[in-house]
Design brief:
The mean pLDDT is about 85. With about 650 residues, the chain is mostly helical. It is globular and about 95 Å long. The chain is about 70% helix and about 5% strand. Strands 1-2 form a two-stranded antiparallel sheet. Strands 3-4 form a two-stranded antiparallel ribbon. The N and C termini lie far apart (about 75 Å).
Length: about 650
């Protein structure tokens, strides 16, 4: 049954690509059918725990294709299909042919290509075919990011993504080539018994880390996610960067691990979590804030994975299973609440035409559905109970605390607890800023004052995702059971073992808390309807006629916390100070640069180009100069040989 469903999944996506150019309804139906088939196939594997293999009867590139669906790939395939289906529904209204007659048909075609290529990445059991699918995935994402290619900023973001993606692909090509050369086959599978393959783990970590957006390899991520259409941003953040996580998870379970691998992954995770949320807190662009928050959540996932690697290496399944269960569940949770947030940001952008939070405000009355669902996603991403973000982070924290309580080398994970706690506090501040500046207060501009709520096709995917966010928080035991199959595929020695997590108690507490919050909200609304709501001015510092410009801005809200990380953020301030007794204007503008990109990568690239230009001048086309170069080279080589003989 699984093979039939996957065959239909691939067939429906291919048909969607063929018909999606002109017939949007046919495309949407086929895309939804394909997504449903993929979800069913993934659910069967996750519930039964049985892997599925299929070998093709024909060769591609001299290799026979091998498709494999096990617990790990099934988990990621479920996410691809879920967001692939919901994003297609969302795009029907958000990026419609009425507003984008040229790019909308092209976008549908590349959307299908992206979903299909990611499905192949997850199921390919041959390294050569994996690279083919990986390249198709990268190119499809590039064309989706640059759908609105009339703007120079979008084109620059696309080129940066493409350059970073191909740099990572080159590393992966070296990894798969070396793996095939040493094992004698391109087929992928567990090779822990071959200890000599352990150094290849570093190549896999670097190549997949670029796609995952782990700090400091995240340089492409903020601009790509901010510049892409919002449904594409949701797909990129919720699913596409998870392909990098999938690669790290997959090969950390298949390869022998070099010494210190767990500590390195744990350290990268902590650095990504703290740096990502620090940059997110300082952003004024709502989509850039969400993009940097993705870096933070990738850090949380890698922290849990690094702790799981330490547990395997030290033979500590008690806290390793808790960390691994939290890692897999957080992969799911991040997919849900981050796509919800990007859909919400897209609704705001669709209604107002701006991503600048300081030009918004007061949208709660004008866009109540979007505001409530965005607030729900913000509470989830901040890790607040009784929602899904708290459940997975709680499991990772539990694993960290159990490891820190052990005597020995693993007690050194205690700083990771402090880092994640600090990142969680900053995440709460960042999303309190986002919700309050965008949706509360008074409209700061006319475009915010005239905003209207999105339509049903944009609203329905957000409602589905919001329901799943609540469901995982209230039923954690059920969803922890669903990650047993990927846990068994990653660590077969833990197969059948259930993590020692008090999930039933947690679910009960969350259910009670949810009911209390629901009852409080109902009573508050009832009181407002009965007695009415009185309107009045808030505290205005003594001003007789306050205006919307006197409200907090995004920069002022995060000013103090942003100052703590000024050494990392390197803010660039433009100040027009108050002058005279009756000043007309005063202004403070702050720009947060892409620190790693602008202060490390670009200067290194310029230095490389400078050296290359200097070397290029040596090619003057003069024969006597070439003879001189050969003479100097031979002389130097002779001197080296002579010194070696001495």
């Amino acid at each position: 049954m699984i093979s039939a469903l996957l065959a239909l999944f691939c067939l429906a996506l291919i048909l969607a690509m063929a018909t999606g150019i002109r017939h949007s309804r046919i495309w949407l139906g086929l895309n939804s059918l394909a997504a449903l088939c993929g979800l069913i196939a993934a659910a069967v594997v996750l519930v039964t725990g049985e892997a599925w293999d299929w070998r093709g009867p024909f060769a591609i590139g001299g290799e026979y294709p091998l498709l494999r669906l096990d617990g790990i790939s099934a988990l990621f395939l479920a996410l691809v299909c879920l967001i692939g289906g919901l994003g297609a529904v969302y795009a029907r209204e958000y990026w419609s042919e009425g507003h984008f007659p040229l790019s909308a048909p092209r976008g549908r075609c590349w959307w299908s290509a992206l979903v299909l290529s990611m499905g192949l990445v997850l199921t390919c059991g041959n390294g050569l075919h994996f690279l083919f699918a990986w390249e198709a995935f990268a190119l499809s994402a590039y064309f989706l990011i640059t759908l609105d290619n009339e703007h120079s900023g979008v084109r620059k973001a696309g080129w940066l993504y493409l350059a970073a993606s191909h740099a990572g692909t080159m590393v992966l090509f070296a990894f798969f080539s070396a793996l095939a050369a040493r094992t004698g086959t391109w087929e992928l599978g567990p090779v822990q018994a071959q200890a000599g393959l352990a150094p290849l783990f570093w190549l896999a970590l670097a190549g997949f880390g670029v796609k995952a957006g782990a700090f400091p390899l995240h340089i492409w991520l903020p601009s790509a996610h901010a510049s892409a259409p919002s449904h594409v941003s949701a797909m990129m953040s919720a699913v596409a960067i998870k392909m990098g996580v999938y690669g790290i998870v997959r090969f950390s379970g298949w390869l022998p691990l070099p010494p210190g691998a767990g500590w390195v992954v744990l350290g990268i995770g902590c650095a990504s979590a703290l740096a990502g949320i620090a940059f997110a807190l300082a952003q004024n662009d709502i989509k850039r804030l969400l993009a940097y928050c993705s870096v933070e959540n990738i850090g949380i996932i890698l922290t849990g994975l690094g702790l799981s690697l330490l547990a395997v290496q030290h033979g500590r399944p008690v806290w390793g299973q808790a960390a691994l269960a939290g890692t897999f569940l957080h992969i799911v949770n991040h997919c849900l609440f981050k796509s919800l947030l990007f859909f919400g940001a897209g609704s705001v952008l669709h209604a107002t035409g701006t991503r600048d939070m300081s030009r918004l405000g007061g949208l709660w009355r004008r866009m109540p559905w979007t505001a409530c669902l965005f607030a729900l996603g913000s509470a989830a991403v901040a890790g607040l109970p009784p929602l899904n973000g708290f459940v997975s982070e709680w499991a990772i924290y539990l694993g960290l605390l159990r490891a820190a309580a052990q005597k020995g080398a693993t007690a050194g994970v205690l700083p990771a607890v402090i880092v994640l706690a600090g990142a969680g506090a900053l995440a709460l501040a960042a999303f309190a800023k986002a919700v309050s500046i965008v949706f509360l207060g008074a409209p700061r501009t006319k475009i915010a004052d005239k905003a209207t709520e999105c339509g049903p096709l944009m609203r329905a995917p957000m409602v589905v995702l919001g329901g799943l966010v609540i469901a995982i928080g209230l039923l954690p035991a059920l969803f922890f059971r669903l990650v047993q199959a990927p846990m068994a595929a990653w660590a077969p020695q833990w197969a059948g073992a259930i993590p020692q997590l008090p999930t039933r108690a947690l679910g009960g507490v969350h259910t009670i808390l949810f009911c209390v919050l629901l009852a409080a909200g109902f009573l508050m609304l009832r009181a407002i309807r009965r007695n009415g709501a009185r309107q009045g001015l808030t505290w205005d510092c003594g001003y007789a006629a306050p205006t919307a410009h006197m409200q907090y801005t995004a920069g002022s809200f995060a000013g103090i916390a942003g100052g703590w990380f000024a050494w990392l953020l390197r803010p660039e301030n433009t100040v027009r100070r108050i002058r005279g007794l009756f000043p007309a204007k005063a202004m403070i503008l702050q720009r947060i640069p892409e620190t790693v990109l602008e202060m490390a990568v670009l200067p290194a690239a310029r230095a490389t180009l400078f050296v290359a230009d200097g070397v290029k001048r040596m090619q003057g086309g003069r024969l006597h100069l070439y003879i001189l170069y050969v003479f100097l080279g031979v002389t130097a080589l002779g001197l080296l040989v002579y010194q070696g003989g001495m």
